[in-house]
Structure formats: structure tokens, C-alpha cells
Structure to design on (884 residues):
């Protein structure tokens, strides 16, 4: 079977069955949609030594989401979920900004570093609390993290006295709004966090152990994995990622808004993880997939503005796109719509199966009455 | 011989998985009112054939004819509605729901769209009663041991079609007896015979040859995804059957029978004193020496598993102490046991052993990696070498470390779990039902492995439902009854299965 067409087919097969194929395809498609509306969508210009362009903006504005989603990926891989990340974003931003605003010299580097430290310590405390409730107390993650999701906003409000604290600190502005080597500085922060996460999970055995705990918690316990410790670590890591995102958001606006900073970011982050192919049931995860998932969501937000979807309908528009993405990732759906070409080859269902799970039940039930008797 | 028309005919069945041809052109037929055994080693294609028949897998080639009409099932529900009901090897019920709910799940009696809970419970109780089982249908399924859960699965399957639609034409029992004790098996057989008299065709898969010969009329033998032959049970003796199944001579098994256990065992490795857990097992003393194989005999539910779990720290004891190598060890978590070289293969492979999403390689290295901690990954070269070595040594098939472990057959999954622990070089290996639900070839391999491990100085605690197996392998046999360790027999010529049975029955020290 070495005819060129067969070889091409098999290469095409391998490509379409790669776990990142559909997320990337959707991302590219979304980017292309913008071109008719904004012909210079892909162009990147150099102004004042900075690079500007839609692509740069997408990465810049998507940075906090990528950070939160990367942390969320590990939590979801253990079979959990963290709803508190939005509140952690707000708390970190509020603490850091209020500390800086109390300083005589807001541009003092040491003060800025200390302020960031204070904010991140708060994030670690939130993560420890979540991890403690989930791993030690055995509370279901969705409930355990709901506590900080709700209460955390109140804490952030307390810190800021219910006001929006504005600061004027040049060094702090760099993280979320500054440029370095012609690119937005946040891009470098994201790159470092993603690289560290990949190294931490794939260069050590952490990734394997996380996947094992998420894949079969009881078997993991019996094999001697210290699941509790791993779960606490993962929640702390997720909170720290959210904390860095909180620094970035407050730095970008030079303000801390306890009410609105990071509002609903947990939902976008969960969505990004799922689009990236990590199952909500836990087990296998993909950091690369999550980054692409987050970019898909940010591109979608950008697209909504560039193609001029009326503001009152943009959530509906977003929902429709998300549904399409999830369906495309379901091997079962692809088999039904596109036939065998993109269809599942038995076990290939790992990717989008979480998103497709409800759909699967429905199709089976529907298909049931019409048995093929020829 | 004028044969009646088969109720089910499968011809030229083909099923492919990536890289594997699981079934290539298999023919199979089933007559009404017969009990038909489907025989073959693990990986021969028995489960695949059943899953194709019951609509779990789609068909890649061939035809299925049910009652003269050609059918093709897209889902298990369709197969069920056509009158083909299945009980699988591993219980696929919801442990958190009540027995009644489990029996009627998906076809609850309703009126005006509401479930009639009372009627459901009543009908469930009647069903259970009619089958002579003593089960409280309102209790959650998880309150019952695996064996009873299996019976519930059978009750559920037999009861489908009682209400609307066609009754059960074909009943598929995939390893239903692997977790049942003798009485429960007899119960099941009685039920099977009744159904057979009603004209139901029963497809029976079991690794217990004696059971096949006791209950079945006809058998179909598969090997490596192809049909080897269809025989009347009365025409083929056990030796002939095994040769058909494994396609080679029986030397493997013979060898084992003649094998002599190493006579001398070393000094005491592990000593449990007064170890017990309320509701699990009464306080017991147990001594395991270096290189000794201690077998545990007793009926299902007699506390065999509970004893093993205490020695591993899987459950926390509420009395007694354990010393390993002369030092007292707290047994509060599996980690404590693993730390002193104890390893444990659970009887419940799916729930307590495998991580199905992970690959064979990842499953094999899991225990070793857990012991090293997450900061010290096993270097890739060393890891691949270890994995390759054990895949080869245990003959794990497919020999592909990248394969997802969930896709392997039962015997190979068991070997993966064995490899997982062997790699950690434990001092004491606890095997709870390591040969359950796996084929005779793999069974012999695992038993041989136990013997050679013992020769190399590893202690083994061996739990098996088959007394012959325990007797063949063990230096010492612990007998359990009603959650108590009642006797400790030193194996010798005078110890026979009937002697063990007597001990179980009388519950007395000899």
C-alpha cells in the first residue's frame, strides 16, 4: 500500500486524529472569518518600537485567560474543578494595588515586588484552602471552590473598601500593559508560566500522577500515590496562576476592581480546557490544547467586535460557536455528519468525549426505536 | 440429524481495531433451548464476538440473522429490544442505586410519565423472590458483595421483556460465575436450566471447564479471532478442548502439576498479631515467612479479601499490630505497607487496579513512580527497559507499551498489574484472585510465576476461589470462615481439598 494517494490519506488520517487538530482548525477558521471584515487582520505594524496588530492584541488580551486556564487544566485532570479563580484574580489585584497605593513612592521597585508577593501569598492561601477542603475534608470540588468564588469577591471588596483603587506605578504597569523586546510583556509572562507548567508536569512525574489520580482515584491510592498531597498542590498551583492573572489584569488597567476583575473568567477557563481536549471527568490532560482553547475563546471575543455582532446578542453568538466547537470534537458527531473519513476509529474518543457525553446519550436514545431490519 | 432452525446465526463476522483484527470471518449459531459455551483463551475474540452481537461494537463485516431476519444493532438497547440480553463479566450496574432501581433502570414502570416506585419495588421483590434469592431490593446495590451484585445483574437481564415487547430469546452470560461461590453457581445453573426449558438460547462464557461440562450442550471454540470448531460437549473431552483452545500441547499445565514447592522457607518476614477490623475480619494472628506462599481458602465473603486489605493498609485496622522484619509498622495507609515492601493486586481490577485511560507503560511504572515521588521521574531509558523486560517476561499482549490498558483483555490486564508490582521488587506480594476471569493459559503462567517468585525468596499471600489452586501453590493454607481465620494448615500429602472443605465446614482447628 505504498501508492502516493494511500500515503497521503494515512498522513491526513494521522493529522485529523491528532488531539490538537480540531482546536487548531477552529482557531484558524475563526481567525479567517475576520479577514473579510478587517482586511488587514493579519498585518502586524511596528509603531514606536512596539508591534501592533490584531494577532498581538488577541494574545495580549487573552493572556490572563491562558494563565487561569492552564492552572485549571491540572485541577480538571484530577477530576476536580476550581470555580474560585475569578475571585482569586480579584483578591490578588486588590491586595497588590492597595499595598502599592499606600506607598509614598509607587515607582519603588522593592515596594512593587513586595506588593506582588503579598498578592500571590493571598492566592496561595486561597489554593491551600481549596485543596484542604477537597483533599482533606472530602468536599466535592464544585462546592468547596464555590465558597471562595462567592466569599472571595466580598474579601476583595473589603480590601478595596468597596472602591476602585487606582494606582500610578510605572514598574507595575509593565506586567499587564508594558512592552519588552517590541512585544507586550504579558506574552513573556504567559510563555514562562506555560513552559514552567509543561516542565513541571512532563519533566517530572507530576503529570503522570495527576492523570492517574484523575483516571482512577482508588487505584491510585492503592498504588501508593499520595493523592491528597498532589491535589493540594494542584489547587495551589491553579490559584497561583489565577493570582498572576490578577496581577496582569490590575496592572493593565492600573486599578483594582473587587467587583469586576476576573468576573466569569472561571467559566471561560473551564471552556478553554474542554475545547483543548481535557475531559471534565479527569485523567489525560493537554496544556497545549488548553492554550489553544483559550486563544479560541479570546479570538471569538475579538471576532464578535470586529464583525459587529450587536452587543445584546454577542453572548448568544458565543454560545453557538462553543456548541459547534464541542460538537466538532465529538468523534461520534463527526462520524454521523462527515461519515467515516473523520469518524472515530474505536478508542479515538478520548479527546472531546467529555463535551460530547450528553450528546451521546441523546443520540443513542433517539436511534433506538429505528432498528435496521432489512 | 434433523436440526431445528437456529434462533441466531452469525456468519463471516469481521471486527477490526486499530492494528488488530479481533475477529476474522467467524461463524456462530445458537439454537433455541440450548446452553452453548463460547470457548477460547483471553484475546481469542469471545468478548468481541459478544459485543458485536449485542450492539456494543459495530460490525465490520458479516451478517447476523435473528429468527430468520437479518439484523444489525447500533446499540445494546436495540439488541435488548430484539430479545438479546447480556450479563457481562464485570458488573455494570450503579452501586449507588437500590437493587430495585438497578433491576428496572431504563424501563421503570411509569404512569403518566411518573415512575411508579411502589410497583417497581414490588415487582423487583417478586422477581428476586421467584429466583430464590434473599435480597432486600430497597437496599443500595453497594451494600452487597460482588457476587450478589452479579446475581442482580442476571436478575435484571432475565427480567427484561417480562413486561412489554418480546421476551428474552438469547441470554448472553459472559463470565457470570467468576465471582460466585459454589452454592451461588448452583443457583445460577438452576435458573439457566429453567430458562433453557422455556426455549431460551443461552450463550455461556466461563473459564471453569467443569462448569462448561456440567451445564452446556454445545460449544464453539475460537482461537486468535478465528473459528476453530463447533462441537457437542459430549463429543469432546476436556483435554481435547484445551488443546483446541491453546493450539498446543498441555505441557504447560502438566509441568505445573508435577512442580515441587521449595521445601525450606526462610525466617519470619511479616507477623500480624491480633490484627482485626470490626465488620471486616475478627482479630487474627498470621505469620508469613520469607519465600513462603500462604494461601487463603474460604468461601466468598468469608473475609479473605478483608484480611489481605488489612495487611496492606488499604483498610485501617482497629486492633492489633503488624511487624515486618522484626519492626512494628503502622498500617494506616497503603503507603505504609508499600514502604516495607508489601504489594497488593486487588481482586477488582477495573475499580481498584487499572487506570484505563493510561497506557500499558504508564500503568506498569505507576507503583514504582509513586514510591519515588513526583520529583524523581524514572529516567526514560531505564523506564523503557524495565517495561520492555516485564512485557516480555509476562508475555503481555499486544506487546505495545503505548496501547491503552483499557483495551487489553482481562488476562493481559492482570499481567500489567503484576508487572506494576514486580517492578518494585516487593518482599511480600498479595494476590487477591489473580486468576479470576482469565483463560487457562494465562492462569498457568501466573501460577508458575508465583512458584518461581517464591523460589527467588519473595513471599506471596495467595487468594483464590479454586481450592485446587490454593492447594497446589501454598506452603501454608489459612482457612477462613465467617470472617474469622479459623485454621492454619501446613501443606503436605495429607492435605486435600476435601480436608480443607471439612475445615471450612466445621470451622475448627485441626
Amino acid at each position: 500500500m505504498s501508492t502516493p494517494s494511500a500515503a497521503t490519506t494515512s498522513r491526513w488520517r494521522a493529522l485529523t486524529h491528532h488531539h490538537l487538530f480540531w482546536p487548531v482548525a477552529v482557531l484558524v477558521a475563526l481567525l479567517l472569518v475576520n479577514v473579510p471584515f478587517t482586511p488587514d487582520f493579519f498585518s502586524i505594524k511596528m509603531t514606536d518600537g512596539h508591534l501592533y496588530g490584531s494577532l498581538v492584541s488577541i494574545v495580549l488580551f487573552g493572556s490572563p485567560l491562558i494563565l487561569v486556564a492552564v492552572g485549571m487544566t491540572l485541577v480538571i485532570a484530577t477530576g476536580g474543578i476550581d470555580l474560585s479563580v475569578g475571585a482569586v484574580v480579584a483578591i490578588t489585584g486588590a491586595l497588590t494595588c492597595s499595598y502599592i497605593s499606600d506607598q509614598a513612592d509607587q515607582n519603588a521597585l522593592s515596594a512593587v515586588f513586595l506588593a506582588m508577593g503579598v498578592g500571590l501569598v493571598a492566592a496561595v492561601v486561597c489554593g491551600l484552602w481549596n485543596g484542604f477542603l477537597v483533599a482533606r475534608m472530602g468536599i466535592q470540588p464544585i462546592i468547596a471552590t464555590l465558597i471562595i468564588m462567592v466569599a472571595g469577591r466580598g474579601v476583595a471588596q473589603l480590601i478595596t473598601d468597596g472602591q476602585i483603587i487606582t494606582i500610578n506605578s510605572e514598574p507595575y504597569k509593565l506586567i499587564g500593559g508594558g512592552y519588552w523586546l517590541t512585544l507586550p510583556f504579558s506574552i513573556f509572562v504567559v510563555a514562562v508560566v506555560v513552559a514552567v507548567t509543561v516542565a513541571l508536569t512532563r519533566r517530572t512525574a507530576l503529570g503522570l500522577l495527576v492523570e492517574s489520580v484523575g483516571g482512577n482515584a482508588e487505584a491510585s491510592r492503592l498504588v501508593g500515590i499520595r493523592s491528597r498531597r498532589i491535589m493540594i498542590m494542584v489547587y495551589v498551583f491553579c490559584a497561583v496562576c489565577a493570582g498572576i492573572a490578577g496581577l496582569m489584569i490590575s496592572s493593565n488597567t492600573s486599578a483594582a476592581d473587587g467587583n469586576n476583575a476576573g468576573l466569569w473568567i472561571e467559566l471561560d477557563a473551564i471552556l478553554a480546557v474542554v475545547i483543548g481536549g481535557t475531559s471534565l471527568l479527569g485523567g489525560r490532560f493537554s496544556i497545549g490544547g488548553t492554550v489553544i482553547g483559550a486563544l479560541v475563546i479570546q479570538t471569538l471575543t475579538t471576532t464578535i467586535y470586529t464583525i459587529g455582532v450587536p452587543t445584546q446578542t454577542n453572548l448568544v453568538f458565543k454560545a453557538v460557536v462553543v456548541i459547534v466547537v464541542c460538537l466538532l470534537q465529538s468523534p461520534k458527531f463527526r462520524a454521523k455528519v462527515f461519515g467515516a473519513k473523520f469518524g472515530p476509529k474505536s478508542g479515538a474518543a478520548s479527546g472531546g468525549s467529555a463535551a460530547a457525553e450528553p450528546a451521546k446519550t441523546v443520540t443513542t436514545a433517539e436511534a433506538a426505536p429505528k432498528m435496521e431490519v432489512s | 440429524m434433523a436440526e431445528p432452525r437456529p434462533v441466531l446465526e452469525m456468519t463471516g463476522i469481521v471486527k477490526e481495531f486499530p492494528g488488530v483484527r479481533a475477529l476474522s470471518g467467524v461463524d456462530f449459531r445458537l439454537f433455541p433451548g440450548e446452553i452453548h459455551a463460547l470457548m477460547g483463551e483471553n484475546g481469542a475474540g469471545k468478548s468481541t464476538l459478544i459485543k458485536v452481537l449485542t450492539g456494543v461494537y459495530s460490525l465490520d463485516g458479516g451478517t447476523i440473522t435473528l429468527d430468520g431476519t437479518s439484523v444489525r444493532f447500533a446499540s445494546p438497547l436495540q439488541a435488548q429490544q430484539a430479545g438479546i440480553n447480556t450479563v457481562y463479566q464485570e458488573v455494570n450496574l450503579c452501586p449507588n442505586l437500590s437493587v430495585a432501581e438497578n433491576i428496572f433502570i431504563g424501563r421503570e414502570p411509569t404512569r403518566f410519565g411518573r415512575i411508579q416506585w411502589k410497583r417497581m419495588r414490588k415487582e423487583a421483590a417478586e422477581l428476586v423472590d421467584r429466583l430464590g434469592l434473599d435480597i432486600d431490593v430497597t437496599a443500595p446495590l453497594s451494600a452487597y458483595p460482588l457476587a450478589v451484585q452479579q446475581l442482580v445483574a442476571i436478575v435484571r437481564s432475565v427480567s427484561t421483556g417480562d413486561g412489554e415487547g418480546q421476551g428474552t430469546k438469547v441470554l448472553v452470560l459472559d463470565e457470570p460465575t467468576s465471582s460466585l461461590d459454589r452454592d451461588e453457581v448452583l443457583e445460577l445453573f438452576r435458573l439457566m436450566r429453567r430458562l433453557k426449558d422455556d426455549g431460551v438460547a443461552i450463550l455461556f462464557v466461563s473459564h471453569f471447564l467443569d462448569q462448561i461440562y456440567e451445564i452446556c450442550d454445545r460449544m464453539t471454540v475460537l482461537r486468535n479471532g478465528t473459528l476453530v470448531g463447533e462441537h457437542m460437549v459430549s463429543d469432546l473431552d476436556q483435554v481435547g478442548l484445551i488443546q483446541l483452545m491453546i493450539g498446543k500441547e498441555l505441557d504447560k499445565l502438566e509441568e505445573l502439576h508435577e512442580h515441587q514447592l521449595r521445601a525450606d522457607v526462610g525466617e519470619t518476614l511479616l507477623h500480624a498479631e491480633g490484627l482485626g477490623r470490626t465488620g471486616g475480619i475478627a482479630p487474627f494472628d498470621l505469620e508469613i515467612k520469607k519465600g513462603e506462599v500462604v494461601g487463603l481458602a474460604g468461601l466468598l465473603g468469608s473475609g479473605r479479601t478483608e484480611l489481605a486489605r488489612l495487611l496492606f493498609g488499604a483498610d485501617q485496622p482497629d486492633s492489633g499490630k503488624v511487624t515486618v522484619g522484626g519492626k512494628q509498622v503502622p498500617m494506616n495507609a497503603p503507603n505504609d505497607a508499600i514502604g516495607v515492601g508489601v504489594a497488593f493486586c486487588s481482586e477488582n481490577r477495573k475499580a481498584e487496579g487499572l487506570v484505563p485511560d493510561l497506557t500499558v507503560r504508564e500503568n506498569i511504572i505507576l507503583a514504582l513512580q509513586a514510591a519515588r515521588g513526583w520529583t524523581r521521574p524514572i529516567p526514560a531509558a531505564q523506564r523503557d527497559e524495565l517495561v520492555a523486560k516485564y512485557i516480555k517476561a509476562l508475555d503481555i499482549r499486544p506487546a505495545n507499551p503505548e496501547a491503552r490498558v483499557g483495551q487489553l483483555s482481562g488476562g493481559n490486564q492482570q499481567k500489567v498489574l503484576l508487572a506494576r508490582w514486580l517492578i518494585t521488587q516487593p518482599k511480600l506480594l498479595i494476590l487477591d484472585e489473580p486468576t479470576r476471569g482469565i483463560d487457562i493459559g494465562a492462569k498457568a503462567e501466573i501460577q508458575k510465576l508465583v512458584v518461581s517468585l517464591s523460589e527467588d525468596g519473595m513471599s506471596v499471600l495467595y487468594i483464590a476461589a479454586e481450592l485446587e489452586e490454593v492447594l497446589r501453590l501454598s506452603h501454608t493454607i489459612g482457612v477462613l470462615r465467617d470472617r474469622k481465620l479459623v485454621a492454619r494448615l501446613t501443606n503436605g500429602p495429607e492435605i486435600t481439598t476435601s480436608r480443607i472443605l471439612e475445615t471450612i465446614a466445621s470451622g475448627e482447628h485441626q
